[in-house]
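Field: sequence (string)
Field: structure_tokens (string)

Example rows 1 and 2, in order.
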Amino acid sequence: MTLTSNMRIDGDRLWDSLMEMAKIGPGVRGGNNRQTLTDEDAEGRKLFQKWCEDAGMTMGVDQMGTMFFRREGTDPDALPVYVGSHLDTQPTGGKYDGVLGVLGALEVVRTLNDLNIKTKHPIVVTNWTNEEGTRFAPAMLASGVFAGMLEQDWAYARKDHEGKNFGDELKRIGWLGEEETGARKIHAFFELHIEQGPILEAENKDIGVVTHGQGLWWLQVTLTGKDAHTGSTPMPMRRNAGLGMARITELVHEIAMSHQPNAVGAIGHCDVYPNSRNVIPGKVVFTIDFRSPDQEILDGMKARLEAEAPGIAKELGLEIEIEVSGHFDPVTFDENCVKAVRDAADRLGYSHRDIVSGAGHDACWINRVAPTSMVMCPCVDGLSHNEDEEISPEWARAGTDVLFHAVVETAEIVE
């Protein structure tokens, strides 16, 4: 038996699964709030476990809570092909970011079962813990530990804004596994994801063949001045931490704009103290996100910020602290895995283009320990990390069709 263009997934079944999962941890306007290691995350995991076991797979869970569901291959010595993404969401997340990749992976196995296809290599459907990094920074936490880029004890000690740590919450929801993190050996890894950008839709392309991933630096900046009355403190005598953040916000924008077309930078989160309308802010804590697919540019942006921001603080009479809260280098995905994705799109007749992922994904870490690539489908207006995030059933079907063919080709059909 060989792969042919008429071998396709069940798009209706995939869409039904997406809509069923979206009922768990609903947002306020049609999206999802299923943050990692919450009760809603635990509920989503249980549903996913049921679906995978109904498809005949067996479950393993590692010490970071990542879920692995195995469909056996015919060769007991062949390393598995892994496929998946993440089920956790942003606080105001959409229904597809990450989830499409996990349920698309499940659909690959369901379709293999429908077609009674056996593969030489086992296939392992994967749900990585805490990809988003919104509750416990940094992002891609579990895959980072798996790839040996982050220490597990350090990951367990990550705290959310309420002071709860990752390790305790993993135990609390009942998903602390016994399996050593990173002990699994991988033949190849594939991840399906929505683009989270506007290129594919704007160019009317069905599929993004992901060749590279942007590297990033996440920096946390703390500016300390002095709280004072907004009405009675003369302007020249103020030590306004809020003004310092505004000046550094302009600097971040200027740095990113000086490295166009592919570099980006922004301040995404801030806490202002004491956060009162008639008090000059005495302290501000905020995060900076720099990204580029070019290592030299990426590091240069960080270096310029670290060189110039202290001057802004000094001019305004502020103390400044800059610390790294997340980092990974730019990624070049495996040539053979990328080819498998491109060949699948050609075989199926889907329009496609090469693309660089502007967002970080678990695949970026796994690429360091196994051959890896990604498949992307369009999303409406490029919108993501927003409850209004939307894709069409046709886009979901096309992306998962390509995922199916790339995975099965790599796992090798047995006649």
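Row 2 begins here:
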Amino acid sequence: MTGKPLGSGYWKLWTSSALSNLADGVMKVALPLVAIRYTDSPALIAGLTFAFTLPWLVFALLAGALGDRFDRRRLMLLANTARAAFLACLTVATVAGAGTIWLLYAAGVCIGVAETVYDTSSQSILPQLVGKDALSRANGRLYAAELTTNQFVGPPLGGFLVAVGVGLAFGAPVLLWVAAIGMLLLVRGRFSTDHPRTTTIRADIAEGLRFLRGNTLLRTLAVMVGGFNFASSAVFTVFVLYAVGPHSAMRLTDPGYGVLLTASALGSVLGTFLSEPAERLLGRSRALTLTIVGSLLTVASPAFTTNPVVIGAAFFVGGITVSIWNVITVSLRQRVTPQHLLGRLNSAYRLLAWGTMPLGAAAAGVIAQLFGIPAVFLSMGTLVLCLVIGMFWVTDARMAEAEAEAERSDAAAHAATRAATRAATREG
């Protein structure tokens, strides 16, 4: 079944997101490739990922509170404008010969802060554009666009642009973010919530944290994602040193490195279309368990081989399973969370899920410096394997009950609203 059309507003958001993620994909490959021209220290390279992901640890909760207080589309526009401006400044400095590893650090932090606002608002705005019954399909199509551009097209393009010129590699994402802003301006409508602004930001954040703390299912999923993101952040923080250059284990060129990363992206795109069949045929719990096995291949395979074909195949399978996990769990989160709390829930969830990324990057730098890069792959593979334990709590029955409870709460809220409206009408 194809379902009813998702609407023009959705497809404009889809196009804007594709452009924005293409910019991300180019930039996230360009940054480490440029960084290894300034230093070959594993700790300093790891520090760049730490700087870029640190805002998810320290700024995510505030981003969620803002997403529930203000129009989410406007916040996305502001965030992309900020990202384009920060990277434009870095481009000018680099072309002028003033680039340093520390300037890359500063740009990473600033762009990372803007990313927390954009991603939290983007994930929260979707239920306002499509109905709950269309969320799996809408998320799948959106992820297909994001992954194709961010991981399939962006990495090889970033590697090619760095080889041509650093200024071009940094300038291209600026233009892409500007184009994304233009498309997002075409999305019409009001995308704020009915959340009252009489409370403080601190109280709003606390309400979102209480909701996550009180929901065992979502809390378990957040911790599991946090474990995987810790591991994947650690692996890919040092993987560039393992893969690129004449003295590396794999001896890939800059463009070759970008091409290798597209194996994961290709699998991720395929996974977005397999998520609904996997959910239907296996059930959500079994499908999610299968994704953990695929993730293990992604983080552990470089420990056992330097063959880019074998590693690429492992990345491909891992990409499929990561997409299946994302579509199933994000759609679940959007269905069971009240709309006025979705921004704060998303940010609290990502504090656990994404806040581990800078910690993983820092751990990778220490492990690689002391024991060598392969030790990072082995230790992180062990961590991912332990995530299977969480599936004892994430069952089909618990997910179905959480959705049913959300439906009952929505029905009660709508009934209360209708009763209040009738009472106000009679009084008038």
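free_text_note (row 2): The first helix runs from residue 8 to 35.
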